[in-house]
Each structure stands twice: as structure tokens, then as C-alpha cells.
Design goal:
The protein is an alpha/beta fold. The protein is built from eleven helices and eleven strands.
Length: 293
């Protein structure tokens, strides 16, 4: 399939934008704009005020880019594309998130056969809002349909069908993940939700989704979210034990692969959780995603 001139220019622009990120061995990075991305959105048309400071819409809520990382060896599984969608926390953007937490490198190390998607949420703002993906009914479904369609259009994939989806969220990224589970329209496709100190809200949404036996909730937490995680545990408890609580310094991969709701307590600093011990890579190995052969 040949690309039209607009499609070619867009693919070229994506490659140029991706060069702003450090090179990563083991895959290809694209930065692509999507009308269905979180922003711009009416919820932040006037910006966002935090502790007396205004974070204006033009600077912090107008970027419609999405980071996409395709590991070498990735392939379509069962006629569909499997995805990992990550929601970052406060005061970040796509580039800082990918570089600081080494998400691409850790996906490669995990060996999971999936494409990583990081939508731009609030750009360098102390805010957990994720615009269209959090607040618009069916917003996540439209976004994922657009992403899958673009991958096919660019001849990266031979299909635009969506397979399994893993949601990961760090800190304030809970707003995106919680909103997706509340009204995103794709809960049946979401097999795993991994929270990195992100239980600040949407407790009912996370608990309701996690009650399905085919779903797997894994929550790593520090003292910052101990209350939120306790609330989640309380909502998930059944008359018989149905969840696990572990300590990070003694956890094993086998313990994390039970598919029962699992909560892991750690003393590692909030901003080091994903990358210090490569736990992002470890936790991806607990998901329903297949390994690259």
C-alpha cells in the first residue's frame, strides 16, 4: 500500500520528532498527533490553576501528540494488535516520561509482544486530568481505534484490529486509567491494570473492573498511597481471601503471576518506582501479553 503525500509527510514528521528522544536499541519510536488524544479538551479550555498558579491551555493543554514504541520482533497476535498504554504523572510529558523511566528499554527487556503507547496528557503541569480519554464516553475506544488505524496506514501492521490492552499508570496517571475504566468503552479488551503508587482516586472503577476473574490488578505502593490502596483492598475483599499483599523486597515473579488482585508495599521513592529496579519490565511479565518468540 502506497502512502498519500499527507500520510508520507506525517510519517516523516513523526520520525523527526522521535529523534528528539535518546536512541533505544531494540525498537522504533514514533511521535504522532491524534485528534482523539487527551488534549485539547473543553475541561482545560481555560487552563488549570494549582496552588495559585495558572497553567494556561496553550502551553500545557494543547499538545495532541502520542508516543508509540514498536519493539523489534513485534508481530500481530491472533489477527490483532496488543497494546500497553501508559498514563504518566504530574509535571511530565512524553519525552521526559520515556527517558526518565526507561519505558521503551524495559518493554524490550520484558520481551512482551506489544506496542507501547504514551499519550500526552497535561504537559509539565501538576494535574491528573486526561481530557478526552478520562472524561468523554467512548473516548478511549476512539483513541485506540485511531492509533491502530494509523499503524496499519503506515504499514507497520497489516491489521487495525485491537487485541489485548494493558493499562499502566504512575502517580497522577490514575486519572487517565480510572477514566478509561469508567467510560472508555474498552473494558473487555483490558486484561491488566498496573498501578505505580497511583491509587489516589477512582477506587470504584478499579475495584469493579478487577472483580472479573479474567482481569488482573497489580498495585505497587508507598506510604503516599497506603490509604488509597487500603480502600481498594476493602472494596475487593470477599468472604474468602481473594487478594495478595506482598513486600517488594521479597516478591517473586511467580507470586505476581497469580492473576488475583495483588498489592505490593515498597519503601523505594515515589519517583523511582518504575526504573530503579526495572519493576516496569518485571510487572509487564505478569500480564496476559505473550512473549516475543
Amino acid at each position: 500500500m502506497k502512502l498519500s503525500r499527507p500520510e508520507f509527510l506525517q510519517a516523516t514528521a513523526a520520525t523527526i520528532a522521535a529523534t528528539a528522544l535518546p536512541n533505544v536499541t531494540g525498537g522504533r519510536t514514533l511521535i504522532l498527533p491524534f485528534a482523539s488524544a487527551p488534549y485539547p479538551h473543553s475541561s482545560r479550555a481555560k487552563g488549570h490553576t494549582y496552588q495559585g498558579r495558572l497553567y494556561d491551555a496553550a502551553t500545557h493543554y494543547s499538545n495532541s501528540d502520542t508516543g508509540i514504541f514498536i519493539p523489534d520482533g513485534w508481530r500481530v497476535r491472533g489477527g490483532a494488535i496488543d497494546f500497553i498504554v501508559h498514563f504518566y504523572g504530574w509535571n511530565h510529558d512524553i519525552a521526559a516520561t520515556l527517558s526518565t523511566y526507561r519505558l521503551r528499554e524495559q518493554l524490550v527487556t520484558s520481551g512482551r509482544d506489544a506496542i507501547l503507547v504514551v499519550p500526552e496528557g497535561p504537559t509539565n503541569s501538576p494535574d491528573s486530568g486526561f481530557g478526552k480519554l478520562e472524561l468523554d464516553p467512548g473516548g478511549f475506544q476512539r483513541f485506540m481505534t485511531d492509533v491502530a488505524g494509523r499503524l496499519k496506514q503506515l504499514q507497520i501492521s497489516n491489521t487495525d484490529r485491537i487485541g489485548r490492552i494493558v493499562l499502566t499508570a504512575h502517580s497522577g496517571g490514575y486519572g487517565g486509567a480510572g477514566g478509561v475504566l469508567t467510560r472508555g468503552g474498552m473494558n473487555d479488551a483490558i486484561t491488566d491494570v498496573i498501578l505505580f503508587d497511583a491509587a489516589y482516586g477512582y477506587f470504584d472503577a478499579f475495584a469493579d473492573w478487577a472483580r472479573a476473574p479474567q482481569h488482573h490488578l497489580l498495585s505497587l505502593f508507598t506510604g503516599d498511597t497506603s490509604t488509597g490502596n487500603a480502600a481498594l483492598m476493602g472494596k475487593l475483599q470477599a468472604p474468602t481471601p481473594n487478594l495478595y499483599v506482598r513486600l517488594a523486597d521479597s516478591m517473586t515473579l511467580a507470586q505476581l503471576q497469580t492473576r488475583a488482585p495483588t498489592f505490593v508495599l515498597t519503601s523505594v521513592a515515589h519517583d523511582d518506582l518504575l526504573q530503579k529496579y526495572s519493576w516496569y519490565s518485571l510487572f509487564l511479565q505478569t500480564t496476559a501479553l505473550d512473549a516475543i518468540p
